[in-house]
Amino acid sequence: MNKIIEKVVGDLGDKRRWRQYKARVKELPEPYRATCSAVERYAMYFSGITNGNTMMTMLDNLIDLFEEHAADGTPIRQIVGEDPVEFAETFLANYSQDHWIAKERRRLQESIRKAAGETS
Amino acid sequence: MGKQITEMLKGTLDGIVLALLAESPAYGYEITARLRDQGFAEIVEGTVYALLVRLEQKGLVDVEKAPSEKGPPRKVYSLNTRGSAHLEEFWTTWSFLVERLERLREGETR
Question: Which Gene3D superfamilies match (chain A) (predicted)?
Answer without folding.
Answer: c-terminal domain of poly(a) binding protein
